[in-house]
Amino acid sequence: MPAEIQKGLPGEFLLLFTVLIWILFVLIRLGNSQNMLNRWCFLSGMVFSIGVFKEYLYFTFFPWLISAYPSHFDQSKALAVYSVLTGIFYYFSMPAALVFGLYYCHFNEKHPRMFPWARLAAFLPAFAFGLFFPYPDTRYYQLNSRPYFLSITFYNWIYGILLTFMIVRTLYKERHEECYHQKKMVSILVLVPIWYWLTSALLVHSLGLTRYFKAWQGNFLIMVFLLVYFLRYAFRDGIMGTRFKHETFDWDKKGQLINQNARCTQHLLKNEISKIEWCAKNLTSSSGLEETGEYARIIVHSTEHLKSCLEKIQYYSQDIRLNLELCSVSDILKDCIAAYKRQFPNIQMDIQCSEELFLSCDREYVKEVLNNLILNAADAMDGNGTLTVKASVFPRREWLVISVSDTGIGIRPEALSKLFEPYSSTKTSDGHMGLGLYFCQKVMEKHGGKITADSLPDMGTTFSLHFPRKKALQNRNGNG
User: What EC numbers are recorded for this enzyme (predicted)?
Assistant: First the structure.
């Protein structure tokens, strides 16, 4: 391998360094895969990881590959791969981070027409560098052309300053908003490793501080810190859409599910069997046909209720298979509301939906989800109040959202986190087994979307069904 090898972290640590970066940014991506901030944070993190990964390949993996397969891989190929990866890292890492910054400061929402051009402009200098300094020769320019390295340093520092300005300015403007704490944590995840790299790698090399050429590897400790930092907040308040919850449970999943079902069925059967038992005892001592008939009606009601509930358990627990068709959102909402207007005459029901909205979905499953939400809302309002069902497209037409809002008693904050768990219910009346919202979540996941809940005690609750535009939203002709 070349003489420019310097002492630094062993190859195994460089590989571990790369894996830590991948783990952190994959967790960020999984936190909310539909959020553009998460997507571009993940993308910029992956491009940054090339900077470490290429060092591992060139100084550790490629020497082994050359010695093991000399006829297939040689030093010139190793240098070419290293040069290409270096070029991608130098040219594209900061533009990707800058696009993240544009989303961070809501440039896409404030200037929707300009945003696509701004995003393209962020990458134009990167393409220009690739034309003037070809990727396979990047290593040559890096070692032999001081003007080249100075221009690379200046280029990346300008991007770093712009990114920092956007983030700091946004934090200052949103310092009184609810999302401020989240955005402050995100700024630490992004800015700390970027500025350490800009200083310890680019600035040090530009100034010719040979003694500190490997100082950039100190970012390894920073990545360990950031991963711990991310996990700490993921287990507390959540960060970038990721929230982990520690729960002690029977690790034998099959046994756990059997226990859950057994508890639900036991609770269901216990109440109805006690009624049947009570009626049976009274039938033996009843003296009149009217009294006997009343007990018989209670028995019939209980058995019908048992049958209905057991069918509901089976229906809500079964695998969901969608039958997709193009549906008018307005028609679906009108059908659902019409079914309950007579049942709840004291609830004002309002539909806000454009006739032009169409959705590719399973009509019956979506109606069942809406029926669940409407009944929950009616129950929360005790039959009196205002129910608003609204369909809209936002932001930048990436989601079609159907929301069901009520003016009921709301949901306690401690209960919100468990809303969509099976057999979890905030209701105490008969017939509520805690499967309705779990079922709604399963249906939305099958549609590639999600369901969320926002609630304030004594103020009301809003459930929102998010359908992704790419999979669901179409116009009357079926075009995206």
Answer: 2.7.13.3
